[in-house]
């Protein structure tokens, strides 16, 4: 489901590189995006597996949509990716991005890429610089809101995990014993 203003969705779906790569925006909301793409033989590398750049690009597109979903131009300053396993030809990959924390000028996001069976292909963390410049003429009303809560994965909401406004495991504010990473040092 997409719960963003139409001008933002139109802007995201008109991304030339995402269209060229065959990426499809299937869900988006404030601080969250889900995109999908089919693994075709054209994206395989010389080693006979899907190219890491294809997987990274899919995650990066989800990251771009999630981090710009508030209507302010946000640009990546840092992204790390860990590849867990290779996808297979014909797989429909799903990349999700969610906000861990966003302040006035920086936003911290987590991305994951899953194959059709739900196995994690890659895991990413990213940081954006949030500018004051609107992405479209009428940004959403929370465009300048700071310190917005982490966004849970949809599977956590359905499985009784953190709800909106609660910290996801490992996210800032997740409590004692929570793993500390770059996003928790804000």
Question: Your description of this structure?
Answer:
There is one protein chain. This protein is an alpha+beta fold and 186 residues long. Helices cover 19% and strands 32% of the residues. The protein has helices at 6-13, 16-21, 52-68, 154-158, and strands spanning 24-29, 32-38, 72-83, 92-102, 106-114, 120-134. It has a six-stranded antiparallel β-sheet. The chain is globular and about 45 Å long. The chain starts with 5 loop residues before the first helix and ends in a 28-residue tail after the last helix. Mean pLDDT is 83; it is low at 161-186.
List the SSEs and their pairings.
Blueprint: H1 6-13, H2 16-21, E1 24-29, E2 32-38, H3 52-68, E3 72-83, E4 92-102, E5 106-114, E6 120-134, H4 154-158
Primary descriptors:
alpha+beta; globular; 4 helices; Thiol Ester Dehydrase, Chain A; disordered C terminus; single chain; about 190 residues; six-stranded antiparallel β-sheet
């Amino acid at each position: 489901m997409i719960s963003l203003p139409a001008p933002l969705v139109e802007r995201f779906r008109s991304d030339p590189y995402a269209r060229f790569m065959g990426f499809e925006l299937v869900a988006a909301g404030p601080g969250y995006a889900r995109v999908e793409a089919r693994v075709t033989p054209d994206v395989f590398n010389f080693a006979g597996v899907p190219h890491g750049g294809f997987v990274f690009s899919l995650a990066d597109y989800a990251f771009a949509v999630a981090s710009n979903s508030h209507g302010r131009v946000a640009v990546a300053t840092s992204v790390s990716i860990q590849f867990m396993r290779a996808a297979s030809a014909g797989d429909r990959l799903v990349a999700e991005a969610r906000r861990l924390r966003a302040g006035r000028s920086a936003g911290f996001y987590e991305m994951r890429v899953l194959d059709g069976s739900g196995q994690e292909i890659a895991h990413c963390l990213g940081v954006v610089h949030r500018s004051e410049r609107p992405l479209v003429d009428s940004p959403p009303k929370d465009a300048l809101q700071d310190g917005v809560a982490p966004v849970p994965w949809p599977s956590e909401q359905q499985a009784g995990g953190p709800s909106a406004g609660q910290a996801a495991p490992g996210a800032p504010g997740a409590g004692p014993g929570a793993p500390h990473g770059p996003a928790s040092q804000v």
